[in-house]
Design a protein that fits this description.
single chain; 290 residues; alpha/beta; Rossmann fold; 5-stranded parallel β-sheet; 10% strand
Amino acid sequence: MGNKFIIIDDDMGIITMLKNIIRQNKLGKVVAEYTDGEDTVDEILFYNPDIVLIDYLLPSMDGVEIVNKILDRGFKGKIIMISQVEDQHMVANAYKSGVLFFIKKPINVIEVVNVIKNVSHNLELERSMSIIKGALGSVSTPDDIDIENSNEQIINNILSDIGIISDPGIKNLIELVNKIAEAKSRDPHSSYKLNDLYVEISKKESDETGTLVNPNTIEQRIRRTIQKSLVNIAEFGIDDYYNPKFMEYSSLLFDFSQVKQEMNYTQGISKRRGTINIKKFIEGIITKLD
């Protein structure tokens, strides 16, 4: 049957379009739909969908407020935010609330399908890990080693695909991905703060080199490396909008609107570059791991 969806948007045209995309691409079933924020917190918790597609700006209660309330009350599903919002502060607030995927208006069918498929893959991995952990407990098996090796290869393949495998900041980026992936393998719903992880990585590097490394230096290396991958993805899209790497990674690792912004910058259409979100980038990679 696939995943269960709830769609919340004040535009019935958007709701209808999303329902059709979900149905036509056999992505799951829409169990409920709403056009404002009133009472939606209780409704989401009642239906307990796998995925919530929610508009940022809604009558009665905005999307971020709804997301905060359902997460505070224990909702474990995935949240995809739909928005025309360009304000980066507002977008940052959405990411902080627990939103990891954005779909920008006007709706792009390819983007919607790719985002939902990536989120669905993430859900499948979490379910599989829960089953495995329940069956094996904390017992280590040779399969664990195989999974670790497989994940290392997957990470390297992705970083190679997006052209940053030899970047100076790649060691720190891989270490960050591994730390978060390891935490999620123990508890798929675990939360983390990137700043705490930067401190851990900087302490380890300081011990190894005998030179004090500032956590801000770690963050800057990782940010520059991810920014370079955004540039590469944008160039893929300019050369060929249907490039398989562009189609796979543009919405998996980045906010698609920022990829388009970087494409406009590269082509001289805009003076503003696209921006990256480190947490979304990392979570996107993790959805691909075994």
